[in-house]
From TrEMBL:
Positions of the ABC transporter domain: 54-288
Domain of life: Bacteria
Subcellular location: Cell membrane
Native source species: Sphingomonas hengshuiensis
Signal peptide positions on this chain: none
Protein name: Metal ABC transporter permease
């Protein structure tokens, strides 16, 4: 399965972030100067987020000019709503999220935030407005506090502590002999999948963005951890416009709207109940995953 931000993408993102001077990490990385994929339009102004309404209008995109991936997507995400994007592997779910972050420019249509075309605002202001909780969190070889503060350049220790509480990882950190000063990453304390995800959530909370992209992990955590993290995520979605790239439908039943992508087009959209009633692709996917869940439960019971 293709992840939303793969390591190379992430490296590119970190690199671009450095170039934009959003976070001064120049001392950490010494990367060769390659052209960025997208650049600020001449006279680009900072994005002014009022409510956080996101619209995709006739969005067309392909990584290669001769292979269209998104073939005209119209999507209106009301400010503060949670919209889940589901669909078969390769349908273009992650691509949709990457385009909102403006990793690439569109080949047709436009994406707006509160009416402003994202191709016409500065990239640094766009990216400051969007928080991403990725599938796999990259931890820096530094302290856990640093890893959380990385979400925002001027975060204070209080901001970091608040974010850790919001991500329900403060208790765990306090139980460590060195607390927030504990070194993590390759050469430090190895965190579990769930703990890493909570660091990513805390990092996002420090940033406090009006728009959130949640890229659901495909690798299953144990069901108790997953339910706990799910509850934390639902709490941080409050008051923010949220796009969830979902693989397990059971985690997005609560979404205000579910959008089903198929081969680069919106095949269906509605609430969970509406889509089940329609008896289309979503209902089929739901039935299949329900069977898998039952099989798992039977296995666990044996
Ligand atoms: P999954 O559920 O498997 O994560 P997805 O719906 O998120 O899938 P995308 O990652 O958006 O799908 O990919 C859509 C299509 O675009 C796929 O056919 C994929 O091979 C292609 N694709 C994705 N990233 C790139 C890239 N960086 N370069 C070229 N093609 C890509």
């Amino acid at each position: 399965l293709v992840q939303l931000f793969r390591p190379l993408d992430l490296l590119g993102m970190v690199y671009r972030t450095i170039r934009q001077g959003v976070i001064d990490m120049g001392s950490m990385f010494d990367l060769v100067d390659t052209p960025a994929e997208v650049t600020d339009a001449p006279g680009a102004q900072p994005l002014a987020v009022a409510r956080g309404q996101v619209r995709f209008e006739g969005v067309q995109f392909g990584y290669d000019p001769d292979r269209a991936i998104l073939k005209g997507i119209d999507l209106d995400i009301p400010a503060g709503a949670t919209v889940a994007v589901v669909g078969p592997s390769g349908a273009g779910k992650s691509t949709l999220a990457r385009l909102l972050y403006r990793f690439y420019d569109l080949t047709g249509g436009r994406i707006t935030i509160d009416g402003q075309d994202i191709a016409r605002v500065t990239q640094s202001s766009l990216r400051a407005a969007i928080g991403i909780v990725p599938q796999d969190t990259v931890l820096f070889n530094d302290t856990i506090g640093y890893n959380i503060a990385y979400g925002r350049e001027d975060a204070t220790p209080e901001d970091v502590a608040d974010a850790a509480r919001g991500a329900a990882i403060a208790g765990f950190i306090q139980s460590l002999p060195q607390g927030f000063e504990t070194r993590v990453g390759e050469r430090g304390l190895k965190l579990s999948g769930g703990e890493k995800q909570r660091v990513a959530i805390a990092r996002t909370l420090v940033k406090n963005p009006p728009i959130l992209i949640l890229d659901e992990a495909t690798s299953a955590l144990d069901s108790r951890t997953e339910a706990d993290i799910q509850a934390t995520l639902e709490a941080i979605e409050q008051g923010r416009t949220t796009i969830v790239i979902a693989h397990r439908l059971s985690t997005i039943v609560h979404a205000d709207r579910i959008v089903v992508l198929e081969a680069g087009r919106v095949a269906e959209q509605g609430t969970h109940a509406e889509l089940l009633r329609q008896g289309g692709l979503y209902a089929e996917m739901w039935a299949r995953q329900a069977q898998e869940r039952e099989a798992d439960t039977d296995l666990a019971a044996e």
